[in-house]
Design goal:
The protein has two helices and no strands. It is mainly α. Helix 1 (3-32) runs antiparallel to helix 2.
Amino acid sequence: MNVAFNTAVTGMIAAQSQASAAGSQMVANAVRGQDIIQAAVAVKRAEATHAAAAAVARTAADMTDTLLDITA
């Protein structure tokens, strides 16, 4: 497995953790009647981060496949 793919997967895992924490914060704030906008923004940011990391993982996998096709 290459470094770019590992980094992308690590980023996806971190984004999932951030989305979970932000979602929990949003629920906690809603229960207390507090503002949920910042938590909602954090969820959207985590979604975008996850999507970007997934794109990097796809690109790294495609590059590896292409390299294997060239050397085979």
